[in-house]
Design brief:
Layout (H helix, E strand, L loop, with lengths): L1 E9 L5 E4 L1 H6 L9 E8 L4 E7 L4 H13 L15 H11 L2 E7 L2 E2 L5 E7 L7 E9 L1
Antiparallel strand pairs: 1-8, 2-7, 3-5, 3-8, 4-7, 5-6
Length: 139
């Protein structure tokens, strides 16, 4: 069994849902050596998240952003407001979506469904560079 770990830095993105599947795969040159295993993707931030969702229709990321903005509104009377009106809603969205995803590996490839992609969910207006820890385990 082998363990490999890389940190992936995603440059600042606008607020929204961004497909990063190719970025993740490019950061893992060893992936092709794995016959079977798991990839764990963990985001090292509390105001952004990672998710797996549809990667084909560009309406999906826009609709996700719209829906989460309705669920975690900026005009809600939050107590935590020191970092701006988009910060606390970002924490709420991050808690709802989650900080990690785990994807099976088979024959050197990620086992994602036909229409699935890995998303960086940027919940801040100016979130900055995001760090993801990528951990491969398997044979």
């Amino acid at each position: 069994m082998a363990w490999i770990q890389h940190e992936l830095r995603i440059p600042p993105q606008r607020r929204g849902f961004h497909i990063i599947t190719r970025d993740v795969e490019a950061a893992l040159p060893e992936l092709s050596r794995f016959k079977v295993g798991l990839l764990h993707v963990f985001i090292m931030h509390t105001s952004a998240s990672v998710s797996i969702n549809e990667n084909a229709d560009p309406d999906v990321p826009r609709d996700l952003e719209m829906a989460f903005n309705k669920i975690a509104r900026e005009d809600f009377p939050y107590d935590h407001t020191l970092e701006g009106p988009d910060d606390m809603p970002a924490h709420v969205k991050s808690s709802m979506i989650g900080s990690s995803v785990t994807i099976p590996i088979r024959d050197g490839r990620l086992c994602l469904g036909t229409w699935q992609g890995i998303y960086l969910c940027e919940h801040r207006n100016h979130g900055g560079t995001r760090r993801l820890m990528l951990t491969l385990q398997g044979e």
